[in-house]
Fold this protein.
Amino acid sequence: MIEVHQITKNYQLGKAKFTALSDISLTIQPGEMVAIQGRSGAGKTTLFNILGCLDTMDSGTYRLDGQQVEKMKDAELAALRCKKIGFVLQEFALINQQSVLFNVMLPLFFDKMAYRTMKTRAMEALHKVGIANLARHKTNQLSGGQRQRVAIARALVNYPEIILADEPTGALDSKTAGQIMQLISELNQQGMTILLITHDDKMAAYCQRRIVIEDGKIIEDQLTQ
Ligand SMILES: Nc1ncnc2c1ncn2[C@@H]1O[C@H](COP(=O)(O)OP(=O)(O)OP(=O)(O)O)[C@@H](O)[C@H]1O
Ligand SMILES: [Mg+2]
């Protein structure tokens, strides 16, 4: 369960202080699928980075499955992230010169795991997203939709409880985007918690709950289904 209480995040711009998030409180139960929406610059990615334990907050509290995140040191945060969270990013963040299989195995290199186990886990994730046949291809030989599937497989490889996705369909045509959302919905039906940042109402419609952020504040938080 994600529990954040009165989170604030400021950025220092020269001498001025810019408040990117203020007084953000929300609870996300295991198994929810939540859309986070709002205009460009509203603070979505800032919130994403904090929820993903990638960035720190200036004040407020964050409990992830009861663990107090704001008090953790970098190494503890990295371990928590590795154990609980899978990331799917807008620009895919794949290593182009490497194979699909290598890209999916990547998060496991940080665990002390036998190569064979890593490979089995990566192939399992590629099966889940329907592109096991592309394992030996280089990622720069793939289409946008296939690349996004690689990014999702990579997010799944460490068996996360939570998937954080920042505009996972932003670079895709609407048909491919629909297929990717279908895939993400299936992961949710299997019990994974999904947080999805999207500009697109059609993508948000796959989610059961919608949170809208404006100028760093939550202005709407409601169930849609
Ligand atoms: N490292 C930084 N230093 C200073 N200001 C920042 C930094 N990162 C973000 N900001 C500012 O904080 C605000 C929120 O940015 P954020 O990236 O969270 O927006 P967003 O909602 O994700 O927008 P988009 O939809 O364009 O991705 C913006 O005004 C941005 O300019
Ligand atoms: Mg953003």
